Amino acid sequence: MGIPFPSGGQDKISDSERIANPCYNIVTMAEKKKSPRGSEFWQIIFPALLAAVLILALGIWFGITGSAGNISRFAQISTVLLAIPVYAASLLFGLLVLVGLIYLAGKLIRAIPPVTERLGNILDRIQDSAERGTRSLARLVIWPAAILAIFQRKSDQPVEEIKLND
After folding, report:
1. Where are the domains of the chain?
2. Which site from 41, 94, 112, 161 is most exposed, i.e. has the minimal number of CB atoms within 10 Å?
3. 84 CB neighbour count, 10 Å cutoff
């Protein structure tokens, strides 16, 4: 099933062409895409060349007719005008770097909690095992000494009490 052109022509567009290019006025669009012959030169290249030649001519004219004070003033102005794009580019670069750092900080803020949770679990395991190890080492030292103290104690002696002088 084809769709006829809106101009009433006998040609029809197939369904595959209609899906590939959904525009209903394909013929009109194709005709309008072509620019008139020679318009590229007169609309783009000629104005750019004319502006460049006029700026160059004005610079030469100021250089020839101007006094030393005028030339130095124009030199200072041109230095400022040359510095402005450099400042603008560095500002843009700095802003891009800042935006990139903010983006990376956001990613880092989202990535840190799972990593720190895992690290906290590992450190808790290390702490638990260290506590168990120190308790077992303390038992190895304290229990034999306590048992030895029990056997060395003389059962016939009363427990000595500390008396305070009143």
Report:
1. 1-34
2. 161
3. 10
